[in-house]
What we know:
This protein has helices at residues 5-18, 21-32, 39-52, 68-80, 87-94, 98-108. By secondary structure, it is mainly alpha-helical.
Amino acid sequence: MTANGSEEAFFVLKFHESRSVTIVQRHFRTKFGKQPQSDNSIRRWYTQFQETGCVCKRKSTGMPSVTEEQAEQVRQAFVWSPRKSGTVTGSRELGIPQPTVWCILRKRLKLKPYRLMLLQKLQPGDHY
């Protein structure tokens, strides 16, 4: 259960006044008529407010961005040997994670990595 911004502000203000999570939770139940957040959440919001002056969500770390150098490395590797066996081999050679190599090829370089497959010729007696 997540709280919206006004509820988080309510928790922070009441906790600053009373310094008691239990009292804050009682006031919340009375005012909003629903189950309050956990004591850990209330304390975390209060600490965050003291440190940053805001109870906004922090920026998530997410995936690190790909540098131009990495994109150029991948481009050079696949231009140098276009028949390279795939993103796994390219990943090992360059020391870049395989999903990152794949994303660079697809999104930045607009290339479509694929896997070559051996196929057998159909014979007249084969059922398909």
